[in-house]
Design brief:
Layout lengths: L1 E7 L9 E7 L6 E10 L2 H8 L9 E2 L4 E8 L11 E4 L9 H4 L24 E3 L2 E5 L9 E5 L3 E3 L6 H4 L5 H12 L7 E5 L5 H10 L4 E5 L3 H9 L4 E3 L2 H11 L5 E6 L9 H6 L1 E9 L14 H6 L3 E4 L7 H13 L9 E5 L4 H9 L5 E5 L2
Parallel strand pairs: 4-8, 11-12, 11-14, 12-13, 14-15, 15-16, 17-18
Antiparallel strand pairs: 1-2, 1-4, 2-7, 3-5, 3-9, 3-18, 5-6, 6-10, 7-8
Helix pairs in contact: 4-5
This protein binds nicotinamide-adenine-dinucleotide (NAD) and zinc ion (ZN) (2 copies).
GO molecular function: S-(hydroxymethyl)glutathione dehydrogenase [NAD(P)+] activity; zinc ion binding
Cofactor: Zn(2+)
Keywords: Metal-binding, NAD, Oxidoreductase, Zinc
Length: about 375
């Protein structure tokens, strides 16, 4: 089918998104076509444009946070039907590999291919200007239709509004899971969340779920500080020094139990202040993407080892999509997870560069592209 998509022809050069005609092939074996209701604007797509995540191929159709309705099923699709409401998961889960069967489907072997620029079978499903187009995360939600592998498609109940459900494809589980699973949070913890974007605000929600006693949000943008308090932070401040002082007072000098890093771009110098405010035996969770070639980190290694701290990386908030996407829908339905308030502004696909500019300025918890 012919439709419109937002592409990068020169990833890594800050050239912005080109909204133009694309052609999407019908679904092949174990694939479905999904008509999207909405796509979230996640910082990871910005990283394709600014080169934090370099791509050795082009063009790329961006977008990896979407939800919609199945309109067509390819051969050998037994578990989805036309009309099903689905969330697209930015990481696929095959359900068979060692990681999947041991409850770590966020690290499914298929995930290794999400930035390879081709569908799982090594071919292209999207074309533009007579070239094969690679899709972000096998998806490419910056177009009204997505031809997706079934391993990245999770069926949800029809009463969940699809524009809200779109955010459950990346930002919500990544942030919420960073607290609930990655940080292994405990009732009564004192928690610091650094960076309140679409991911960090959900780390705040996850900390609330786990019964954290104190939740301190750090973000330089006053709007983000205010939103963090609305979503359950007990305190919000603009920098590490202010947070360290609060932690000191709240914990009688012991330090925070958990510090979760969800800033837009991770740099080595953000790590030592996080470890310095973490208590003995505490956990520092790193969720943010760093520039891929970044190697420089200054850290007080003696203190790190001798105080038994843990530095925990987390992909997709260490969630299992087939368990956690329906769970997050249920938490939303029963009023225990806020999704509506995550969407600060909506955009048309044509205005996608404005949406990214607004994200960079800190104007949105999440910007969302709405389709017809
Ligand atoms: N690990 C994963 O699986 C995964 C999944 C999705 C996104 N990510 C990454 O998570 C990060 C956050 O994504 P997002 O969509 O929430 O981004 P975002 O741009 O919506 O939010 C980032 C926030 O960090 C704040 N910030 C920047 N520098 C800061 C600092 N020094 N101290 C405190 N706050 C600071 C910004 O003001 C902004 O509010 C990105 O790096 C993204 O690529 C990782
Ligand atoms: Zn994302
Ligand atoms: Zn797998």
């Amino acid at each position: 089918m012919k439709t419109t998509g937002a592409l990068l022809w020169e990833p890594g050069t800050n050239s912005g998104w080109s909204v133009e005609e694309i052609e999407i092939d019908p679904p092949e074996r174990r694939e479905v076509m999904v008509k999207l209701a909405a796509s979230g604007i996640c910082h990871s797509d910005q990283h394709l444009d600014d080169g934090v995540i370099p791509l050795p191929w082009a063009p790329v159709l961006g977008g990896h946070e979407g939800a919609g309705v199945v309109t067509e099923v390819g051969p050998e699709v037994h578990d989805l039907e036309v009309g099903d409401h689905v969330v697209l998961s930015f990481l696929p889960s095959c359900g068979k590999c060692r990681m999947c069967v041991s409850g770590r489907s966020n690290m499914c072997e298929l995930g290794a291919g999400v930035l390879a620029g081709v569908a799982p079978d090594g071919t292209h499903r999207v074309h533009a200007r007579d070239k094969g187009v690679g899709c972000m995360s096998f998806l490419g939600t910056f177009a009204p239709y997505v031809c997706a592998p079934v391993d990245a498609v999770v069926k949800i109940d029809e009463d969940i509004p699809l524009d809200k459900a779109a955010l459950i494809g990346c930002g919500v589980p990544t942030g919420w899971g960073s607290s609930v699973y990655g940080a292994d949070m405990q009732l009564g913890d004192t928690v610091v969340v650094v960076g309140i974007g679409g991911v960090g605000i959900n780390a705040v929600q996850g900390a609330r779920h786990k019964g954290a006693k104190n939740i301190i949000a750090i973000d330089p943008v006053p709007f983000k500080q205010q939103k963090a308090r609305e979503f359950g932070a007990t305190h919000s401040v603009s920098n590490y020094d202010q947070a360290a002082e609060l932690v000191q007072q709240m914990t009688n000098g012991q330090g925070a139990d958990r510090v979760i890093l969800t800033v837009g771009v991770m740099h080595g110098d953000l790590l030592e202040p996080a470890q310095a405010m973490t208590r003995r035996g505490g956990v520092i969770v790193m969720t943010s993407a760093a520039p891929v070639l970044q190697r420089d980190v200054q850290i007080d290694l003696f203190t790190f080892a001798m105080s038994g701290k843990r530095l925990q990386g987390t992909l997709y908030g260490s969630t299992n999509s087939r368990n956690d996407i329906p769970l997050l829908c249920e938490l939303y339905r029963t009023g225990r997870l806020e999704l509506d308030g995550l969407i600060t502004r909506t955009y048309r696909l044509e205005d996608i560069n404005q949406a990214f500019a607004d994200m960079q300025k800190g104007l949105n918890l999440r910007g969302v592209i709405m389709y017809d």
